[in-house]
Amino acid sequence: MNMKKGKTILLIDDDTYICSLLENYLSDEGYTVETAHTGKKGLEKAVKQQFDLVLLDYRLPDGDGLKFLEEIKKVNADIPVIIITAYAEVNSAVRLIKAGAYDYVTKPIRPEELVSLIRLALKKKRSGRDATNFQKELIVGESPEMKEIMRMVKIVAPTFMTVLIEGETGTGKEYISRAIHLNSKRREKPFVAVDCGAIPDEIANSELFGHVKGSFTGAIKDKQGSFEAADGGTLFLDEIGNLSYEIQVKLLRVLQERTINRVGENRDIHVDVRIIAASNIPLINLVEEKKFRDDLYHRINEFKITVPPLNRRPEDILLFAEHFREKANDELDKSVKTFSPAVKKRLRGHSWMGNLRELNNVVKRAVLLCQQEEISIEHLPDDILTKTRKVPASPADASLKEASHFAERQVIIDAMRKAKYNKTKAAKILQIDRKTLYNKLSRLDINPENE
After folding, report:
1. Longest distance between any two alpha carbons in the chain, whole Å
2. Are 205 and 219 in contact (CB under 8 A)?
3. Residue 107 pairs with which residues in a beta bridge?
4. d(CA 218, CA 396)
5. Which helix (H) or strand (E) holds 34?
6. 37-50 burial by CB neighbour count: b if 16+ within 10 A, else e?
7. What's the start-to-end Cα distance of the chain, in Å?
8. What is the pLDDT of residues 317-330, one digit of tens each?
9. Closest CA to 243 of 277, 266, 192
10. N or C: which end of the chain has fewer CB within 10 A?
11. If we measure between CA atoms, which residue out of 209, 338, 185, 325 comes closest to residue 262?
């Protein structure tokens, strides 16, 4: 379905150059664009005319993005709003998303990326965001394991129980947590996701619980933490095992007393938040190593869901691949219809160290490269096409090139062991990103479970 035809976009930005650039580009893409250079003029247009989507600059001469986002939503609560912001204002943009914005883009704007985001937003508007549609997007899978997981989701969702989701990185833990939220009585309230592995220890207190102006250097104004942002709804704490001991103590208190204290403030603030936690390694291992509090573990482990890796549910691989193909078609405005038999065989036979995230990336890349209706072998990346070569048993048996591979392999294995097989921590030790680590694990034939 062509998502462009007849779609009108309201662009509110005081930068006339950006307005001209985007208006020309979006018009060429088939959209009708109306521009306004102030928030007030934009609101006047929104009242008088029906729009399908709004592009809203965060900083306008007559107010900030939050003010005008709220006013636009009063006019049309369902309209998707994409925030345009400077990179330095990303934290503010994230707060606007919590307040109802669909997403944000940072300056300098890449038009192709913006068009892809617009297509997604319009598709979400068409399909809605209720639990039924979300589960269709999630896909249950054909494997007995995934069917059992979705059965447990429906059982635990209506309760207030704290849920712990364990499984390798990329298996879909956040999607499952969203399914729980959208099947719960809190579905109309916020769902806030926090990557605990990405929060530096020194600001974790502020990020989770907030702070007041002047409480520390750089605290130039009051800040609402994730708990307050999720009040009435669900807070998803991904990679919870990365939280420091100090934060674990405070988290336990919040779970017991349902109150928080902002940094620099003694006043108790009541919060009504359901916690869903996730970890890519069994938390009980961290408990045994005295790196995670035993009492906190038992408090969050009221109901556990374990997500198996993709290579343990091969019957789901092609089902998810088809789903990602359709998703990529929508995002990239393509019409690729199928995979060749040879591609299907390769997909089924790959180890998928990065699980669903890796599969999604491979399929999206293939759709982008494909110029016909069928994805063929030539559209797959090299690591899917080539059989992983086994490294030699010892450096003494290796050529110079093989010895280099052997040394690299051993360094990565040592880092994985030091990080207790937490890939996020191992990547930090190796000073590489997680995607690079996954590629190296696959290329060097490293299976963390067997090392």
Report:
1. 78
2. no
3. 86
4. 55
5. strand 32-36
6. bbbbebbebbeeee
7. 48
8. 999 999 899 988 98
9. 277
10. N
11. 209
